Amino acid sequence: MQKIDKYELIAMMILFLIGTSPLYELGVGAKQDAWLVVIVAMLAGLLLLLVYLFIQKGNEDRNLFEILNQQLGRILGTIVTIAYIFYFSYESMRNTREFGDIINISFLPKTPLSLLMLIMILLSAYAISKGTEVFFRVVEFLLPFTILGYFLIFLMFIVSKNIHLERLQPVLEHGIMPVIREAIPKVISFPFGEVVVFLAFWKHLNNKKNLSKLSIYSYLFVGILLLTFNLLNLTILSPQILSITTLPMLRSVRLIEIADFLERLDPVIILLIYIGIFVKMTAFYLGAVIGLSYLVKMSHKKLTVIVGAFIYTISFAAPNFIYHTWIGFTRNLMYDFPVFQIWIPLALAAVVLMKKLFSRKGKQTGGS
Amino acid sequence: MLRRLGIMILMLSVALLTSGCWDSQELNTLSIISATSIDRSNGKWEISFQVVIPQSIATQTGGGSAGSQSPTTIFSTKGRSIAEAMQNASLETSRKLFFAHNSVLILSEDVARKEGVGEILDFFLRPFESRETMSVLLTKGKASNLLEVLIPLEKISGNAIQRIIDQSQKNLSQAQNMRLIDFARMVASLDESAMAPELEVSGDLTKQSSLDALKSTRNDAVIKLGELGVFRKDKLVGWIDQKDSRSVAWLSDRVSSMMVVIPCTAKGQENQLLSYRVLKSSTKLEPKVIHGKSVIHAKISATGVIDESGCNLDLKNPGVVRDLERTISKQIGGDVMETWSHLQEMNVDLAGFMNAIHRKDPSTWRKLMKTKRPIEEISLRVQVKINIEHTNMITKPYSSLLKDQKF
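^ Those are the sequences you sent over. The predicted structure of the assembly is below.
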């Protein structure tokens, strides 16, 4: 049995949720109110997190797939498990493809996409083949650098006088509805709802007493970090420029010019983003491997190779980056991901709740 | 054994594959662009690059000067689109054009007036290499001419031009350094008109583009900042002069340092002037609605010092200084109001008044946007508060020594 301790869990939750999110302007459809979208989505996502935690609390020593099979029965459980394996693989592939294309756009335009993605998958596969525990420890090691990096960039934004807070006004120009429409389900599904994958890892925590507290604190920490960077992009680039920019954060960072020598910091942000992407794609990849290992009796290494090959293959599914982002932002986030992040967990939680009530009732009647 | 061999092969192939050979760029295969200009001729884009010649800007140690070769060279190419024109440069350059160090973009008036800057902005915001911090400039003549002028003290004139704008922004607050990203934002903004400083050559251009020009102490031609080009949407609609540019700087809170020259008010001293240098200033725009009309309340406050006094005034006396402050305020206020009427005539919003209204009072803004010429619906009230902090190293004017000589 693999064990993870609380610092590893905190690091994992933070880096996982950071992922690629700072690079994009979440909720840009609400123009200057995008930051409000983040707050709304963060709070709504917090409710989801509580649902996930409730499911985990009711099934202390089981992971998502064990819970599914135990609560939903053999047949339905297997079907949903398979669906989750595909969902996790798909999420992992989305991150892989995204970063490959980002590198193509920015630094290495001529390097074949297939190679960039292969290197990333190999790295992730290596981390996973060493087991859950090792992967979590790697993430713990990466956390300080990442936080320091983001903090330094934040400081440099302030020092370089690029921030124009007045660009946030007028607040709520068209009322609250556009904000809510942007937040739900789009920004919940990316990045906040993705926490659902932790249902596959939580059972490894060695001291489950603190589970809820740790998860919620890490979640809120990331929420504030994402909010900060969302605000930075808004105030630095203005909503109009943001609405046509492919990678807003990369653009903002390029505006930093301090004392004629600290400038062109885009490699730094790409590095930070890569750390986030690595953690996120590997976590989903690992989720898929754990799921498959529940269905098929095979060695961990073999499963890692199989799932990795699958992710690598489907990462060529989109003919181009344009299609990839289009399907991601207009289809997946609206219709597909909520199924796995909201509807199934809600149903599962309902089942857990019902069983709990019934069993308590049964006990009570039995006792009296 | 076989396993070890396998690992060796794997390591070698990884080392080969991850070295990034696809995108390797050697320094000696690049021509580094320091400035770009865009003109229009015969329905085609004409784009010119100022390319740095590395050998001639390298500092040489141990004697011998690098002065025999011009520090930069210029390529001009044409094409139906800007990108095509740039591609066509490959027909005549021996090296790949490298854009990342381009610091200046100069547009000719012709392009900005007729074609608009939309396509140009798209081209420069799109590629990863091009920097959004480059300065946008306008010129009335042919833009590529400006790239030819050699600037004393500086080797690469593209960088020098950017430094000229920076300097003038810091010391004069007249021309603002317009970064590409800010320019793009202002052009796209509903509530703001974009502007860009004009660069002009005064003097004999042909002489100053030869390296011999740097051999004499007096230059045949200099590059200097002139007026301010004003845009409506993405098209240039007119120019405002330097006096108006200064008032615009007052209104849009961009004054960092400025010299205000006022005539002395005392009798018989009409031709004598006093110079007041602004050290710090701030402007607050407060939009209000008074009797159904939009009013912008501009509160300007500035702190500065006396730099020169031709008048015989008792600058030790706080009462006199207070009078001076009032005169300076009146002068600035008057200038600003005059500029505002010019801006209303041109129907442009350089000071961001619509922005201020939009941010504070969206409903009034919406009403204004429905009118045909919203700028004319706004009236301006200026309130200037000037503070003279000190008079530098002497108190009373030197001329007082000459007048009140007593035995």
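Confidence is low (pLDDT under 50) at residues 62-66 of chain B. The radius of gyration of chain B is 27 Å.

Shout if you want it in another format.
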